Amino acid sequence: MVTGVSRVDLNGIGMTSQRTRERLIQRLLDRGIDNQEVLDVIRMTPRHLFLDEAMAHRAYEDVALPIGFQQTLSQPYIVARMTELLLAGGTPERVLEIGTGSGYQTAILAQLVGEVYSVERIKPLQQKARQRMRQLKLRNVHMNHADGGMGWVERGPFDGILAAAAPERIPQGLLEQLAPGGRLVIPVGGDTQHLHVVDRTHEGFETTVVEAVHFVPLRPGTVR
Ligand code: SAH
After folding, report:
1. How far is the CA of 19 from the centre of ligand 1 (A)?
2. How close is the Cα of 119 to the center of ligand 1, in Å?
3. Which end of the chain offers a freer environment for a tag, N or C, measured as fewer CB atoms within 10 Å?
């Protein structure tokens, strides 16, 4: 395990049935997720805390769910896949996340890497996510209310960047904030999107297209 990593403390948090959670883990295994650390962290993270009460009963289904403001909490499979891809490039110390949303992906990352820098353009979503980080005692998360399409210049460069919203083309600023040896995992496209993995080598950038995905679009500007 990586040092300095915080783990979610489940004591005192309303536990949903262990069997429901195990079913989700089995589903992720069936779909080809094989990073044991990622699976363990997903198993231990209470996804129902990232949803409004009306949606919480569906928290351990492998589906994306609405979180308001026309945004969604990502599907567990895609969270697992993107996290696994990010870590496969070597466990990053400093990670930039674009699109905090509910904070679920943020919480998963925070238990696996050194520091997470997460940018969200919709203020009320960020505020809720911040509360959840506090509730789960994840202290290595830093949040910024801004347009993440430009990254987070003051805090870069990053060993890893993960985007939860899709641009039509990868913003140049994100590539620039990737440290040499770093890896960017990002959905790219419009009506059809594909998950891209971009590695920054000393010679330049190497891109691999992984699979078709469906994300909300990366939008410019911020919402108060
Ligand atoms: N991983 C999150 C996904 C949320 S959906 C979760 O599981 O909850 C994607 C998020 O990206 C939304 O909250 C949306 O507001 C945000 N987003 C879209 N464009 C953005 C931008 N330019 N900068 C920062 N956040 C952005």
Report:
1. 30
2. 8
3. C
pTM of the predicted model as reported, rounded to 2 decimal places: 0.94
Query: To 5 degrees, how large is the angle CA 194–CA 211–CA 176?
Result: 50
Q: Report the number of secondary-structure helices (H) and strands (E) in the chain.
A: 7, 9
Tell me if 122 CB under 6 Å of ligand 1.
yes
Ligand 1 within 6 A of CB of 162: no
pLDDT, tens digit, for every residue of 3-34? 344 555 454 344 567 888 999 999 999 999 99
Residue with CA nearest ligand 1 atom 18 = 218
**Annotation marks residue 118 as catalytic:** no
Using the Cα atoms of residue 27, residue 90, residue 118 and residue 206 in order, give the sign of their dihedral. Answer: negative
Q: For residue range 62-109, what is the model confidence (pLDDT) as tens digits?
A: 999 999 999 999 999 999 999 999 999 789 999 999 999 999 999 999
- Of 150, 158, 155, 170, residue with least CA distance to 220: 150
* CA-219 nearest atom, ligand 1: 19
Cα 140 to its chain centre, rounded Å, is: 14
Sorted by where each starts, the structural domains of the chain and their CATH numbers stand as 66-213 (3.40.50.150)
